[in-house]
Structures are given as structure tokens and as C-alpha cells.
Amino acid sequence: MPGFTEIVGAVQGEHGIAHFGDVFREQRRLSTGAALVPLDDRTVIEVAGPERLGWLDSITSQALGRLRAGDSTELLVLDPQGRVEHAAGVIDDGASTWLIADAGDAEALAAWLVRMKFRTQATVEVRPELGLIGFVDGGVAAERARSVASAPTGEPLVWVDPWQHVSAGGHQYAEVAEHPGADLAWRIAIVPRDAADALADTLSSDDVAGLLAAEALRVAAWRPRWSAEVDERSLPHESDWIRTAVHLDKGCYRGQETVAKVHNLGHPPRRLAALHLDGSDDVLPSPGDPVFAGDDEVGTVTSVARHHEDGPIALAILSRRAPVGDLIVRAEGVQIAATQQVIVPADAGATAEIPRITRLSRRPTAPDPRHTA
Question: What is the pTM of this model?
Fold first, then answer.
């Protein structure tokens, strides 16, 4: 969004404005609802038509058939083996379902939806003329974002990130009394780009934050993202995405058998962990850097941030057999000590209190005639 690039201090990164000069200050203001983030690293897809919700329900991991106008959720598209292919935030306005996808996934997701349409009364369109503005609810930033948000049916299109709570039909693997995501009231407004640019003209560097600030809050909340935590092997269980993106009680969809099997039997092949990094060196790891337990490579860093309170932090996908103690991240020839906090336990799913499905092959035993009155 060109208007934001004109604000004093704006520094462009690979996927959008990285920061406006003071990353830690931006994080603090963003976390209190005082700053807006232009999210040029994400894209809007509109799905319209009378059959859109039932159709999306049948081909994705989320229960969408009865999604009400104004409600928000998120979905995953899985392959037949239950691996994550696409992900998107979802909000419906009664006439269209709006998907918010990472920019690197949006075109592929839209193309896949078009291929799956067949005779369904629905249309799929990437909407590049719409921008996205992120904010934390509860402050002046919310008022500003909502004032310029697109409202095709009268109500502003503002996606409410469900990560604060376990969604209906979901399940949390993280065994913590207080989940860090509960404190992040993250919202994304869908905004016409010309309106976003006009808003930017009224703002100063005190009113905005960059993508680095938004990422720091996400990593601290243990929130998985397609562009970071997903690779060709990813199962939703491994990053605790069952929490908000998968409905365990809905009808059949592609990949459901694997979702149910791993959840019922437990032991996903890998698990997400939070790493608190030694900050004595100025070196910060990068996504893709290896994680070691002693001399054994046990995983890979997926997301990294410098947090204004927690210092250098990261998310990492580890082997299920990785020990739960301290680890080492190797970055640029430097070994960085990392204190591990388990997010997804190695036995995730096996201890869940869930009903076991009776095998269809087990038939009721005929009554013993000797015991018949």
C-alpha cells in the first residue's frame, strides 16, 4: 500500500514494510492497540454464490456450513494423506466468504478452489485491489481500521483471529494453564487500497508498526502460519493447529482419515516447540537453521523474532523423539543456546479425552439362548 511507504521511517522488507525505525516501540504500541500494520504479505480471495459455504465445508477442515454473517474462523486444505496444502482466515458477510491467505499461497489456493468447483454455484476471485491492515483490538487503531474497512453488506469486514480460544470442534495439545495466544486479540481489516492510502496520509510513525512487530507478537503467541510453519510434510497436529483450524466432529473431507487417526492414536511424527534464545551474541537464527540436541540434529527453526519483553524467540518443528530439555541452534557458524518450551507434546492426541469409534467389523453378539426367559 503506497501510502504507508510515505510515512517517515518506513523501511521496506522482502514482503512489505519491515518497520518504521523502532521495532520494539512499534511492538509495544501494536500490542496495546495503538498502532496499525499494513499487511502486504497477505492477499484477499472472495468466494461468492449461494452454495459457497456448504461447498467450502465439504472440501476443507473447518465446519463452515452454518457460518453466520460476521463470524470469523480459519480453514486448512489438506491433501489425501492429511498434510497441509493451504490455509486461510475466513469471514462471511452473508453474501460472500472472504479468505485471507499468505501472499505466497493465495494464487495456488484460488486455483485449487476453481478446480474443485465443478457445478457448484460459487465463484472464486483473487481481489488485489483490496489491502489488509492488522491491529490488536481495544484501542484507537481498531477505530481507524474499521472506519476504512470494506463493507459490501453494511458491516465492516474485520477478521477476528480465533487463536485466542479453542474453537468449537477443536482441541488444544499444548498443556499449559494459560496459553500465550489468549492475550493476543489480533484482527485484520479488509480495506480498499485507495482508502488505506488515504488513511495512511493522516498517520505518523507513532500510529503504525511494521511486519517485524506483527511477527514478534505472533511467535510469542505460538501461532502457526502457512508461510512459516508449513512444509511438504506438515500435519495440523504438529503445530497445534487442531486448536482453531480443524473441526474434529464435522463430516467427511479430504485428509480427514489421517486427522482422525493421528488424533485418536497420538504420536504425530513432529512437534512444534517454542525456543527462548541466548541473546549474548548478536546473531539471530533464520528460518531453516538446524536445531541440535548434543550432536544430533532434531529439527528446524521455522520463525524467529526479537520480542520487546521476551528477547530473542523462535518457533521450531522438532522430531517427536527430540528431548524436551535445552537445545542448540546453529546459525552462521555460531551455536546459540535455546531453552525449549514444549507446545505439542510427543504423545499429542493419545491422552485426549475423545470417544473411540467402534469398529464396523464388530457385530453385536447374539444372545445366548440359555439365558433367554
Answer: 0.92
